[in-house]
Amino acid sequence: MNLQNAVLPPHAEMVRAMLERDTAYEGVFFTAVKTTGIFCRPGCTARKPKPENVEFFAHADEAMSAGYRACLRCKPLDAAAIAPDWVQRLLKSVDADPDLRWTDAQLLAEGIEPLKLRRWFKQHFGMTFHAWLRSRRLGIALGGIKQGGSIDNAAFDSGYESLSGFRDAFQKSFHITPGRVAHSEPLLFTRLTTPLGPMIAMAEQRGLVLLEFLDRPALTKEIEELQNRYGYAVAPGHNGHLQQIEEELAQYFAGKRTEFNVPLHLPGSAFARQVWAELMKIPYGQTTTYGAIAALLGKSGASRAVGLANGQNRLAIILPCHRVIGADGSLTGYGGGQPRKAFLLRLESAAVQITQQLAF
């Protein structure tokens, strides 16, 4: 599974979309105004700035890290938390008829520009729409084989005319041959939208295995490790754990949830799991240091090792490594980027303050 950086539309097209308030580009880019220090959705109804005073960002957090504030009128952080209507309609159509082979002509008939769709999927899923469809069909085939279905039937149902073509595509996607599926564990993934940009969630039958921001530099390496070291076959799909984390994450960002109940499964070394267990104990709205965690583990001189295990955490927000700061109070590193770390700490601090005010 290869996750690539987002590719923004041409500058002239983004300027046009901004000036015309083209809502079709919701979720594709954000407009930041240099003279006001505010960033907006493409369809914002506020007075439009001069094009020379504007710059564009693929994600809301990128605009925030550049020093821009969210517009109070169009609320771009809320927009970042949902897929645009035209994408949601398409995803519902795919769920209703998973065997349909979508062509560019069919997309255009639905009012969807294929190039725009390609860019949105590359940004939010790390692959094109058609690649996602192929991967989704192969994921359905994987589930069928895992449940005892024949490889021949799986290949035919997936739309492949030759068994060899199916085997090649299957092995390229899952790093195993169809015949070895019985000895592997399917790891289903879905994209989640959040105010800090898109995330990817992965879960198997025992629980949630991964929750990361799609632009995390180490994400590709983490997924390859899950495939090669732990034998997972990664495929798009849904299960109860993915549905639960989507609901709980939305509540967290709304300031209405302080802990997560979704079951977890954490492949890793014994020491890493010890560190992750301590991360789980850090109270909501509070912070600690690498040295303090090392002391709790009886290894006061192991701050560096704790930091390394902290960085190997695959469950952003759930295992709250954003609550670990430097001994001098600095934010230090964070796999999702320091602007996101600062945002999460502000979110939790504000929620705690509101709770305390309501208590008096």
Automatic annotation (TrEMBL):
Zn(2+) binds at C40, C44, C71, C74. The active site is at C40, C321. Signal peptide: none annotated. Residues 111-184 form the HTH araC/xylS-type domain. The keyword Oxidoreductase does not apply. Its EC number is 2.1.1.63. GO terms for cellular component: cytoplasm. Gene3D superfamilies: DNA Methylphosphotriester Repair Domain, Homeodomain-like, Methylated DNA-protein cysteine methyltransferase domain, Winged helix-like DNA-binding domain superfamily/Winged helix DNA-binding domain. Keywords: Activator, Cytoplasm, DNA damage, DNA repair, Metal-binding, Methyltransferase, Transferase, Zinc. Binds 1 zinc ion per subunit. It catalyses: a 6-O-methyl-2'-deoxyguanosine in DNA + L-cysteinyl-[protein] = S-methyl-L-cysteinyl-[protein] + a 2'-deoxyguanosine in DNA; a 4-O-methyl-thymidine in DNA + L-cysteinyl-[protein] = a thymidine in DNA + S-methyl-L-cysteinyl-[protein]. It is found in: Cytoplasm. The keyword Transferase applies. Belongs to the MGMT family. This enzyme catalyzes only one turnover and therefore is not strictly catalytic. According to one definition, an enzyme is a biocatalyst that acts repeatedly and over many reaction cycles. PANTHER family: METHYLATED-DNA--PROTEIN-CYSTEINE METHYLTRANSFERASE. Involved in the cellular defense against the biological effects of O6-methylguanine (O6-MeG) and O4-methylthymine (O4-MeT) in DNA. Repairs the methylated nucleobase in DNA by stoichiometrically transferring the methyl group to a cysteine residue in the enzyme. This is a suicide reaction: the enzyme is irreversibly inactivated. This is Methylated-DNA--protein-cysteine methyltransferase.
